[in-house]
Amino acid sequence: MESTLSVQEQVREKYGSVARAVAESAGVRACCDPGVRCCDPITTDLYGANQTGAIPEKAVKASLGCGNPTALIDLRAGETVLDLGSGGGIDVLLSAKRVGPTGKVYGLDMTDDMLALARENQKQAGATNVEFLKGEIENIPLPDDSVDVVISNCVINLSADKDRVLREAFRVLKPGGRFAVSDVVVRGNVPEVVRKSMLLWVGCIAGALEESEYLAKLGTAGFEEASVEPTRVYNIEDARRFLTEAGVEVDAIAPQVHEKFFSAFVRANKPHGRACCGSACCS
User: Rounded to an integer, what distance in angstroms lies between the CA atom of residue 237 and that of residue 124?
Assistant: First the structure.
């Protein structure tokens, strides 16, 4: 029987269990613990040793992203950064090092267990220019024109209202601000059985936008210069692994998703000198 929980409730439940597994673990990554599904191969080998060695171990273990936005965006000293769906805080802490003591990094998450884990990681890292906020990415608890950069790591695809997420990101960015997120994107049509699978949605797959749709939604929200850059393309064997975990008939579906899903770096800019106004960019 299909779960009656909403997408948001499913996401909160899954990532809460990940946070608890990490908090209780003694040395294994959360996705290796029994009962916690990891969207591997999407989440593996995203950060270099020079990055993971500089932050608390449990921030690394709680990472379930699909890319490394901190490696692909030019963060400058003194900037204010917002990480949507910050989880255990890996991208927040890495960004905090780059913006320096005169900068500020906000991490936004709706899951109490993740926030508790992130704040513990912040304390362990000694990061004084970081603040973790509780809230939903569809309703960002920050004022208009307040951040220089919005980042995110495989979280926007989990939202059931991506248009609102993008409008909110546009709203909080300063004029000239940058949107720079890692996300799972799809090219072409995808079997309906994949789209309907709640487990795959929560596991970063079924909620993925088609590439042209993603770009169109960014434009509707008010962004300019939007682009999608593939960083890791998933083949049949990758598909076989995540479909098997979800209980989908692998042999029938895997060839239909071969190299259609990919992790991507999605960039866009808020125009200079333009505040959010009108139905095209405000909720």
Answer: 38
| pTM of the entire predicted model | 0.79
Q: What is the CATH number of the domain that holds 248?
A: 3.40.50.150
Count of domains in the chain? Answer: 1
Q: Tokens representing 279?
A: 């139905």
Supply the range of the domain harboring residue 174: 7-268
For each of the chain's 283 residues, which pLDDT tens digit applies?
Answer: 344 556 667 666 665 566 566 666 644 444 433 333 344 444 555 555 565 556 666 666 655 656 677 777 889 999 999 999 998 888 999 999 999 999 999 999 988 888 999 999 999 999 999 999 999 999 999 999 999 999 998 889 888 899 999 999 999 999 999 999 988 888 888 777 776 664 564 455 667 889 999 999 999 999 999 999 998 888 877 777 767 777 777 787 777 778 888 888 999 999 997 544 444 455 4
- How far, in Å, CA of 44 to CA of 102, rounded? 32
Distance from C-alpha of 208 to C-alpha of 195, rounded to nearest angstrom = 9
Q: Where are the alpha helices (DSSP H) in the chain?
A: 7-24, 49-52, 57-61, 69-72, 90-99, 112-125, 162-172, 192-195, 198-202, 211-221, 236-245, 250-257
Q: Which amino acid is at 163?
A: D
